[in-house]
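Subject: Re: docking follow-up (magnesium ion)

Dear J.,

Thanks for your patience while I sorted out the input files. As discussed at Tuesday's group meeting, I've set up the holo structure prediction with magnesium ion included as the bound ligand rather than trying to dock it afterwards. The sequence and the ligand SMILES I used are pasted below, so you can double-check that they match what you have on your end before we go further.
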Amino acid sequence: MSLLEFKNVSFKYITDDYVLLENISFEVEKNDFITVIGKSGCGKSTLLRLITCLETDYSGEITLCGNPVKNTHGYAAFMPQKDLLLPWRTIIKNVMLPLEAQKVPKSQRTELAKDALARVGLSGMENKYPSELSGGMRQRVSFARTLLAGGELMLLDEPFSALDSLTRIAMQDWLLQQVKQLSKTVMLVTHDIDEAMLLGNKIFLLTGRPVSEVKIIDVSHIKTRKDLYSDEAAELKNKLVSRFLTDDSGKEQS
Amino acid sequence: MKKKIFGHLPAWITGISLLLLWQLIAVIIDAAYILPLPTQIAVRIWELRDPLFTVHTPATMSVTLIGLLISIVLGVLLAVVMDRYEFAERALYPVIVTTQTVPVTAIAPLFVLWLGYGIWSKVLVSVLITFFPITISIHDGLKSSKRENEELMKTFGMSSLAIFFKLKLPNALPSFFSAIKMAIPLSIIGAAMGEWLGAQSGLGYFSKRMMTQLDGAGVFAPVVVLAVCAMLVVAVISAIERKFVKWRKEI
Ligand SMILES: Nc1ncnc2c1ncn2[C@@H]1O[C@H](COP(=O)(O)OP(=O)(O)O)[C@@H](O)[C@H]1O
Ligand SMILES: [Mg+2]
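The structure tokens for the complex came back this morning:
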């Protein structure tokens, strides 16, 4: 059975007068690394909001291991675009936040948080405040916090888009390693086609306006940054770019 | 330490220059019952130290602190209720903002009429002056936490009560402290004004009594004591704030 399944899901924000997602269906298998791409504003973040039950006013069905997920929190670990670290908490206290939600006993929290920080290479930073860290470090703290949020499904919403390009490349390589070691299922939203091809084993391309189809593209053969420069990868990239340009041409937004 | 003193140097120079200017003008006018010399006021404070510091300062400060305490408790309660229940916010917030425009000073004599010459008419003035700004700033502080942070905590499975204590409350702490610091002088003004209108003790009452005796320096003496008290209380609150709020709000 697939880990996560969307069955004919349609959604619109109450405050908007247009439908955002129309009758979409897809499945995510255990240990998949899905990268989600689509035009800006097409509803990628909204997709993650549906999975995390921040929006529940949809039709159709979203199931996790066959069980509907409506109004259950805490089964998917969500990492937002901004790090959202609390400035009044030290790094380790920030990382502990999900453990406090899960009511993990105090005695275990410190150890678990320390392990998570060591995993992201930030041992020794425990008692610093977020304002003392660089953007890349803060993003890794945010990732450590996501690791402790539990659940085997990780949802990452453009985690690196706020970073400069060198830091971003370093973080992409770092994330690839992390996910290999962790054996987690990941859905990562991005607007960077290279990132989508490099990190994912499948690309979910949201198409149509409103989004009515999720095109699935297998990119499991692209494993390293070098593979991105193969002829095959270049061709795929061209195809994806032209899809972006032709999709709903004529109704182009600014 | 050296740096700190030199950092405040310009302010000291301005303050001392103003005092000198005052002294100069007062010497020229030469009418102590209208404009006493700063040195005369200092001497008068010393001469009147016994009634000033044993009777009238404690009276005014207790009114101030009782008023402030009531305002803080009510303000926090109301701000929390408005934050948690939207209908409470829609029902109360506009009313609170509007009442801020009522000139409490103008209707204060009524309170003396209603509550008499005792402490409570002054406490009421002080509460009415400080309650609204405290409520509004704490409410704004609670509201100012980012919705994204709240949603993230929800995805962790946190209850809304836990979110309140772990996100909203700490986030509102800086506003809470600035509200209190702003309210202290207001509260003292309210108390003194109430005493001026009718009382048996307090610095406002004392100042008025000196006025009837055309003792200019005696009128000013309690005013100076009031100002110093306000600064001392604000300094104490600032020290507490530095202990609790080690971070600055990010812009
Ligand atoms: N909370 C919300 N309420 C109403 N409309 C929203 C909300 N969040 C996003 N939208 C709208 O829904 C559309 C899709 O948003 P989003 O999912 O964030 O797009 P993406 O992440 O693909 O850029 C946008 O047009 C946006 O204005
Ligand atoms: Mg988005």
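A couple of observations from a first look. The two ends of chain B are 29 Å apart (CA to CA). The CA atoms of residues 56 and 202 of chain B lie 4 Å apart.

Let me know if you'd like me to rerun anything.

Best regards,
T.
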